[in-house]
Structures are given as C-alpha cells and as structure tokens.
Fold this protein.
Amino acid sequence: MTDAHARERTLVLLRHAKAEPPDEGPDAQRPLAARGRADAAAAGAWLARHDLLPDVVLCSTSRRTRETWHGVALGMTGTPPEGGSAGPAPTVRYEPDAYEAQPEDLLALVHRVDPAARTVLLIAHNPGVSLLSALLDPEHADRDGLRSCDVVVHRTAADWAQVERGRTAITARHTARG
C-alpha cells in the first residue's frame, strides 16, 4: 500500500431512501415507503461489495434517515445495526444539524470526525447533501443532484478537518434500487 493510499479518506454521501408522501404530521417524522426500505438495503449491499463499510456514520435525526441507516446496515451485514455485524460496528452519530442543513453545515459535521476514521457515511437530505457533493467536486457532481437513495463516493488525502471545496474527488456513484 502506498503512503498516499494509506492516508486516503472516503466520504460516502447518501440521500435518504424514498419516504412516504407528506401528510398532516411533522415532516421529520415521515417514514420510509416500502420501496425505500428495499432501496436502503440495496445501498448497504452495494457499499459492502465495494468495501465501503463506514467507520463513522453521520445521520440526520429525521425518521426517514434513521430508517435509511437501519436498512443500509442490514444490507451491509445481514443483521440489525445494534450488533452481530460482519466487522466492527461503526460509530453512529445522529446529528440534528443534518436536518434541513446547508452544505456548509454538513461540511462542519465532517470536519469534526475523528481523524483516525477512514470511511465516513453521511446520510442526509436534499438540497444540502447534493449541494455538498457539488461543493466538494464541482466539476464532476451531477447537475440534477442526488435522487432518493443515491450514493456518491468522494475521496481525499486531507484530514477530515481539512476537507474543503473543490478538493474531494468523486470516484463512484450508485443509485440503489432493491
């Protein structure tokens, strides 16, 4: 392994899976739709196949993002995120600041990640998560943004606290469909 590869960090951005349509209840409490649950598991399986198991998960506190993380964890390991995984369980931080966040707010969460972490999974909402991807790699970001359960993989040699605009390249994309 080269020295540069040993220092590489991977930031996986994931827009939450398909949620139920809004009703009269609070937006933050909308659950995933059946398709969203299947798509979240498919996203987790894709992450596992591509050796993108996170050390740290930053997840919005909304119900649909928490349910997305649960489905992703099941897809990665075949077991619930509380235990029994095929590898070490990631540190999971449910972040209120990730709900209705601007890209700079999401980047601030990334900046606070433990420097020892190599792979971070950020599960959030549009437009913030799409705008963060575009901020990190404006040349290669999808102009239409992330659709539900879209995964965008960014890589950098910088420490988490130094991740900055235009310096974290997109290396893979995937739209999970279960």
Summary: The mean pLDDT is 91.
